[in-house]
């Protein structure tokens, strides 16, 4: 994983959001705030970055507004949970774009053993006009940062499609 390249791509994307006046927020679990960090590494990001939630536990997700029924029915590791996370943060921060990320990085989650499969990640992007969720299976990475950057790069590619295709209401 080329960390410098991922950081450069996020800088370009953040500048695009600033140029278009589109706000963004995240609710992250598996990436534990890495995407928010990548966005805010760019000078001027405060103009478009509304805030972020790192909800590592199931209870934190529920406290922030993810319906417990979704986690119970589909598991914390699901497209449905990722979508609920994306919608919750977008609405909570009144942003144009909300990103939700959940999954298992390098090892099995002791709190969610049945649903936890290392390398399986779910993320979702919510805008006023479009909601889309994604599932990816990552190959083994050398460390946690490499997993986070791999997911962040995938999320970025999908976000760019949404922004560049003008799916976001401006």
Structural overview:
The protein has 170 residues and is an alpha/beta fold. It is built from 6 helices and 5 strands; from the N terminus they run αβαβαααβββα. The chain has helices at residues 3-20, 34-40, 58-64, 68-74, 79-93, 144-164; strands at 24-28, 49-54, 97-103, 120-126, 131-137. The chain has a 5-stranded mixed beta sheet with strand order 2-1-3-4-5. The relative contact order is 0.18.
Placed side by side, the strands forming the largest sheet appear as: 2-1-3-4-5
Distance between the amino and carboxyl termini: 34 Å
What are the segments in which pLDDT stays under 50 over at least 5 consecutive residues?
none
Please provide the count of β strands.
5
What about the largest sheet?
A: 5 strands, mixed
- Rounded mean pLDDT is 92
Number of helices: 6
Strand content: 15-25%
Shape assignment:
globular
Instruction: Report helical residue fraction.
Output: 40-55%
Element-by-element helix/strand order: HEHEHHHEEEH
Structural class of the secondary structure composition? alpha/beta
- The rounded Rg comes to 15 Å
């Amino acid at each position: 994983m080329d960390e410098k390249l991922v950081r450069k791509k996020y800088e370009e994307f953040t500048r695009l959001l600033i140029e278009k006046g589109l706000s963004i927020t995240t609710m992250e679990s598996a990436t534990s705030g890495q995407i928010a960090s990548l966005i805010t590494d760019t000078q001027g990001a405060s103009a478009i970055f509304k805030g972020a939630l790192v909800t590592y536990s199931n209870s934190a997700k529920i406290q922030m507004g993810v319906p417990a029924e979704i986690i119970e029915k589909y598991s914390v590791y699901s497209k449905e949970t990722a979508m609920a996370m994306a919608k919750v943060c977008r609405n909570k921060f009144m942003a144009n774009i909300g990103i939700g990320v959940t999954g298992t990085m390098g090892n099995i989650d002791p709190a969610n053993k049945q649903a936890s499969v290392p390398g399986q990640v779910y993320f979702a992007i919510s805008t006023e006009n479009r909601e889309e969720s994604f599932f990816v299976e990552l190959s083994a990475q050398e460390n946690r940062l490499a997993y986070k950057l791999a997911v962040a790069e995938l999320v970025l590619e999908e976000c760019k499609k949404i922004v560049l295709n003008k799916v976001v209401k401006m």
